[in-house]
Amino acid sequence: HEMTWFYQADNVENIEPRTELIARCKTALAKIQELSTRGTVLAVGHAIEGFYLQQVAAGKTNFEQFDQPKRLDNAQIEEINF
User: Fold this and answer.
1) Residues 6+ positions from 15 with CB-CB distance below 8 Å
2) What global pTM score does this model have?
């Protein structure tokens, strides 16, 4: 599949449903925010989760609100400010 397929796949066998991924990102973001009160936090993950986490951090809580997917390369650093 093209990379963009993975950003938009939903209800496909062996692919986590978007609603579950968004819920998981909300939980992760809350933990990151909690930890960030003590200093800088480094979160490491896969590109798709990184994109979803950025969208959730921007206050977008459903897929229809998301920006166009952008590819994150391996070991790419993305900064999220709260």
Assistant:
1) 6, 9
2) 0.82
